[in-house]
Amino acid sequence: MSNRLVVLVLVLMVAVGALTLLVLRSGSGGGGGAGGASAGWITQGERVVLVDPSQVERAVIRRINVGASSGSAEELRRSSDGVWTVRNLSENAGTRAWVVASDRATGFLRLVQQLRSAGVMDREPTIAAEAGRYEVDFFGTGEKKLATFTLGARVLGGQTVALCVGDDGVKRGAVVGDDLAKVLATPALAWRERSMLAAAGLEAAVRGATLIELNRGEGSTRRSVTLSKLNGRWRMTAPVACTADEAAVGKVLSVLQGVTITRFSDELGQGAAGGAGSQGVTMESAGLTNPRAVARVEVPRREIDGRTGEVKISTQEVVLKVGGIAPGNASGGSDPSVWATIDNGATIVAVSGVGLASLNLDAAGYVDRRATAIEAADVRVVEVVPRSGAQPTGEQRGARFTRLEESPGVWAELRGVISEGGAGGGGTALDEQRSGEVRAVLEMLTKNPAGGATLTAPEGYTVFGTVRLRSREGTLLDEVEIGEARGGDGKVAILVRTVPRKDLPSRGEVFRSYSTVATLLQRELSMTGGPGQ
To answer: Could you report how far apart the first and last alpha carbons of the chain are, in Å?
Structure first.
C-alpha cells in the first residue's frame, strides 16, 4: 500500500508540473506564432537577455495591469559619472530625476544578466496584457536599442514566462524563475536613494568638510556653534575659540551623513515627484522660510583645468534646512519626520527627526577635554605661579622647573622671581619622585581629559594660581589658571581655566573640571581643598 501511495504522489507531482508549464507557455491568451529551436527558442539553462549591463545607458520600464502602479512608466538613466537616476514618465508626472540607491539599479541589471531558462519552449509564448506583464527597453550609447524584454507578472509554482527580442530581431522565449518579477513588482521610484546627502551627490564631499556651522532657534533662544578645520585639526571658533573635541565633530558629520529620507512628497499623495511647486509643498508650508535648524558645511573643491593644467581651489557650500513636522506624524511621536531641504527648496522631502534632534548645540560639548593642545614633548619649562597674596612676595614667589636635555625625563628646579622669556639653565636636579611630580602636571594638562567643561565660571570659583608652559627658547606656549569650586553637595571640583592672551584675542574662556589634581600643584599653589572634600 505504501509503495502505491508513493507512486500516486509522484504521478500527481509530474501532472501538476506539466500543467503549470503548459499554462505558462500558452499565456492567458493562448498560443502564439510558430517557431521551434530554429526560431530562437532556447534550451534549459541558457541566458534569456543577451545584454551586457555595462553597455546599458538607459532603461524604460512599463507595468501593464500590475497592481496600483498599472500603466506606469519609469526611466532609469546612467550619468557620465556612473550615477543612476529614475524619472517618472507617466502622464501628468513631474520631470524630476531622482538618484537611485547605488545597489538597486546595478542589482536589477545583474538579475537581468543572470536570468536563465528554467524550461524548454516549443513555441513563441503569448504574454497577454490582461494577465499583467512588465516591458523593459534597454538602450546603449547613442540611444541604440539593445533589447526589448517582456516578463509575465503572473507567477505559478515560482515560475513565469519571458520573451526577449534582441537588437538582431531574434526572439528568445523561456520559462524563468520569479526573482526578476519580484523586483519589477516594486516601482523603480521606490528604489530612490534614501540618504539625503547621497541623493544630492554630496555624501563624499561632506566627509572632507573644513567648516561646520550649526544654528537653532531665533532671537533670545538662538544657539549657534561654528567649527573649522585648520592644518588637520578641528577648532571651535564661535561662540568661543578653543581646540575642539574631534569625536564630537565626528558625530556631527555622522549625523549629517545619516539624515534619512522617510518619504518623498509624492508618497504623501500631494502631487508628482517634481520640483517644490508640483509637489504641493513649498518652503513656507514646510516651515523652511524660518527653519527650526540650519546646518551649513563648507567643502573645498580642487579642480584641474584640462586645457592649462592649472589647479583651481573653490568652496562648495552645503546648507541643510530643517522645518516643521511633516503630515502623518503626531507631534509627540517617537520618530516624527520633519520637512527638510538641501537645495534651498528645489527639493523638499520628509526626513527622520531622531538623528537631527541629537545634534548638539551646546558649545561646551565641543570643547576639547584636554586643558591645552600643547604636546608635552614641546614643553621645556613649567612655571607654577600662586595667586597674589598666596605666598610672601619677593624671591620666593612660585616655582620654575626646567627639563634637562642631557637627562631625558629629569627636571631641575629653580626658585625665585619668574620673569618673561629665557628658559634659564642649571638648577638643582630633582630626584625621580620629584621629576615624576612635574611629569604628572604635564600629563594632567596635555593628556588627561577633563570630566566636563563650561564656558562660564561656576558659583564660588576660587583662583589659586596659574601654570605657564614654555618652549626651549622661553616662548610662552600656553597658560592656564587653576582653581576650585565647592558644589551644593560640599564636594570640591578642580577647575582649569583657559587664560585669555593678548596674542590670541579671539581666545575665549573655558573652564574644565577635574576630579583630581597633580600633587605638585596642590602643594605649590597652597590649595586648601581636595577632591571630594
So the answer is: 91
Q: Which of 100, 351, 358, 353 is nearest to 253 (CA)?
A: 358
Structure confidence at residue 112 (pLDDT): 94
Contact 261, 351 (CB under 8 A): yes
Q: What angle do CA 225, 230, 231 make, to 5 degrees?
A: 155
With 0-12 / 13-18 / 19 or more C-beta atoms within 10 angstroms meaning exposed / middle / buried, residue 397 is: middle
From CA 348, how far away is CA 276, in angstroms rounded?
Answer: 6
Distance between CA atoms of residues 259 and 246, nearest Å: 20
For strands 233-238 and 171-177, give the pairing: unpaired
Q: How far is CA 229 from CA 51, 120, 248, 310, 505, in A?
A: 48, 65, 13, 25, 19
Q: CA 468 → CA 206, 226, 401, 492, distances in Å?
A: 38, 28, 11, 23
Q: What residues have CB less than 8 Å from 101, skipping those under 6 apart?
A: 191, 192, 193, 194, 198
CA distance 379 to 232: 22
- pLDDT for residue 3: 57
Task: Specify whether the CB–CB gap between 467 and 382 falls below 8 A.
Answer: yes
Secondary structure (H, E, C), 379-433? CCEEEEEECCCCCCCCCCCCEEEEECCCCCCCEEEEECCCCCCCCCCCCEECCHH
Cell numbers describing residue 366: 565641543
Sort strands 211-216 and 223-230 into parallel, antiparallel or unpaired: antiparallel
**Alpha-carbon span 259 to 356, nearest angstrom:** 7
pLDDT at position 250 is 93
The cell numbers describing 388, all together, are: 597674589
Q: Which residues, in sequence order, are CB contacts of 43 under 8 Å at separation 6+?
A: 37, 117, 120
Full 3-state SS string of 30-82 = CCCCCCCHHHCCCCCCCECCCCCHHHCCEEEEEEECCHHHCCCEEEEEECCCC
The pLDDT assigned to 208 comes to 86
Predicted pLDDT at 328: 64
Question: Given this model, what pLDDT does residue 246 score?
Answer: 94
Please enumerate in sequence order all residues whose Cβ is within 8 A of that of 329, keeping only pairs 6 or more positions apart, or say none: 336, 337
Distance (Å, rounded) from C-alpha 321 to C-alpha 255?
14
Q: What is the mean pLDDT of each run of 10 residues along the chain (533 residues)?
A: 52 47 42 40 83 94 81 89 88 72 91 88 75 93 94 88 88 90 90 89 82 87 91 90 92 91 73 43 89 91 78 86 78 71 88 85 92 91 79 54 79 65 62 90 94 88 90 88 80 78 63 89 75 38
Q: Which amino acid is at 378?
A: D
Record the cell numbers describing residue 530, joined without a space. Answer: 581636595
The answer to whether 508 and 242 are in contact (CB under 8 A) is: yes
What is the reported pLDDT for 148?
95
Task: Read off the amino acid at residue 269.
Answer: G
C-alpha to C-alpha distance for 387 and 517, rounded to whole angstroms: 17
